[in-house]
Amino acid sequence: MRRILVTSIATALALSSVYAPSLAQTTAQAAPAPAVTDATTQLPRDVRPTHYQVAVIPHADKLTFNGTVAITLEVLAPTDSITLNAVDMTFANVELATASDAPAMTPQVAIDAAAQTATFSFDKPLPVGSYTLSMDYTGRIGTQANGLFAIDYVTDDGEKRALYTQFENSDARKFLPSWDEPNHKATFELTAIVPAEQMAVSNMPIAESTDLGDGTKQVHFQTSPKMSTYLLFFGLGDFERATMQMDGTEIGVITQAGKVDQARFALQSSADVLREYNDYFGVPYPLPKLDNIASPGRSQFFSAMENWGAIYTFEYALLLDPTISTQRDRQRVFSTDAHEIAHQWFGDLVTMSWWDDLWLNEGFATWMAARTTRKLHPEWNTHLYSVGGRESAMSLDAAVTTHPVVQHVETVEQASQAFDSITYQKGGAVIRMLEGYVGADAWRDGVRSYMKTHAYGNTVSDDLWRAVQAAAGKPILDIAHDFTLQPGVPLIRVASATCADDMTTLQLTQGEFTKDRPDKQPLSWRVPVIAQTVGGEPARTVVDGGAGSLQVPGCGTVVVNAGQSGYYRTLYSPEQFAGIRDAFADLAPIDQLGLMGDTWALGMAGLQPASDYLELAAATPVDADPQIWGDIAGSLESLHRYYRGDDAGQARLDAFGIATLAPVFERVGWEAPADEAAPVAILRTQLIGTLAELGDTSVIAEARRRYAARDRDPQAMPAALRKTILSVVATHADAATWEQLHASAKSEKTPLVRDQLYGLLSSAEDPALARRALDLALTGEPGQTNSAGMIRTVAYQHPDLAFDFAVAHRGQVDAKVDTTSRSRYYPGLGSPSSDPAMIDKISAYADEYIADSSRRATETAIANIRYRIQVRDQRLPAISEWLERHGG
What we know:
By secondary structure, the protein is an alpha+beta fold. 41% of the residues lie in helices and 22% in strands.
């Protein structure tokens, strides 16, 4: 491997103070430029990088850094310019050297700030061949999670600052002049000059560390495998690391000093997951180490990032603090870990060619994490979670603003907006459906073939489909295309069900489910359907051409989409639904959940009575699976919010909700037995939260009592209930209680706890306290990465207040939102509103501040408001009438 030229290393050492550019140098912000052209591939294809040799010197105190880079590249066709990505950089000493002894060339440098590019132009065309482009440069360290950024956090020893990088989707260009597109893979050799007492970490192990004798050290990392720029990572701080070995890989967790014990569960989980994946993928994990780096703070965009060999995860998704962490936290840590480690293959080893196929990364990792969690922790009963994930996707996919799983991406902002429930949850649901269609073994064999064929390369979706189809010997390409190349949710109607000779014949028709376009011409899908009578054997078919029939063994009540692997809604006739309601207690829990999801969505869309969901809730036995009751609790909370502004209607709904949930909570209780199942522990927190939201005075009073007794009675707020109790107290806080919580937040020295407390200060129902939280968010007190989350939390209870405040203080708020999230952050604040005036406000904001090509989040927020108004005006009357008839 080539090392950085001696002259460049000397330059890097000389730049240990902030570099002052001369008038002859070019600044990456200086010249205005036209907007980026509408092209999926944004950089010219006549030059290809193969290796980056990078040296950086961060100045954490000044929020700047110096760098020098030598890029080995191939000129593929004669050209007189080289264009790469760069943002907020200045350049000096730019040279292009050839492989021969010819003198180095000095190009002219031009910056296109809008396109985020730098172009190096030469007097005459460069012939085809190998070159080295070297330069010195300076850059900025941010305070939000983009590029190279700083996180400040409080400890017992005072305030600390750590540095991290976050490059997905298009922010490596803020750290390194580079071809910052996923299909420009190259190897990376990173060197950093850092404070001697701090730990530096990157994708690869340290090859050499040299004390420079001036309080700094030079850390040189091993060369990475060939990978995309967005997977490069660098971190620096007062860190602590714990490791273990598994299958020849050193697995590590890195935390702020003193917190590494809180990452032990994540460390063991990483080992368990890596062992499972080495077997499943048939290609062993190829790097010598795999670290997971825990960071204080948070982002509005992500919770963890799959940098190859150096996963970055915010503390709330990685650490388990014994004073506050819950069973749900434990499961989130495992699931997050499993998701990011799945990316080490799907995304890192094999990478999508362009952001159009982002789902290849995220949908697969979502599915793989769910599969692995079910296998390695069956006691958590997480196989039911697949229904909730599918519901999240369908809710977005059934709206007018939906998009295909494989979506056309042209700009950086569009790539950022591609990270949504359709990419993640629909992508995972489609994989689950297709795995069920071809069989688990055939699916795995196809994935193994795909990995071996495309290792260290880039792919499109059809590469995966063809590999699976070849392994399965069963056609899936058309089905896969139907569900990934067009948007929307199929609707399977059970036209009739007749029984003869102990066989039930179903006549099925296929339409399209939509929440807000009842007159839409339906699309057509080839839909794999599984159905079975209660307790019977499943039968399978593919509904093609809009209709089909299926013979199901047995007579009696039939469940379509049995096992809930299909990505579609099922609509039964009123008579069929009555039979399902009467047999509801006998159904498998996953089918109960699926039916409840369909019934809720179809009812809210006006395709069946909206009150049918309440019929199922009333038919649910008290001892049903805890996750069934969790779904009911969540739906009752949603109805409670729909009734805002209608005090009488809300009171009826709340009375029904409390009467329905109270017997379940009586079984669960406040105290947990030693051998309690994980789903029950989670249900306890859900029920307390929902009953408090519905105004159950006894639950609110008990939460307040426990909060008041916390100092004299250690058992009053056990760790498993601490978050829940504090949430109830904060939501229903008066001014004195709010001040108590504020004092606790200011004095707290543990970032994980401190961040939670500042979030709670934003959850008050009292508008006056919500305004105080908004004002507090704009100060430096909560921490730079907490403020945006505080404003968003206020928006949950007071969307109009939060939106108006954020727009009025846009300059200050912008500084507290990571740039990847801004185009969807402000519309998202207004999204929970039911006021038609909010539609005009969001539209006006978008017209002034959001590019036309980046309006998906804006349009989605507006669609949500219109849908909420539609439900309030058209569906709630039927629910109110049902509640009156049933004593609500």
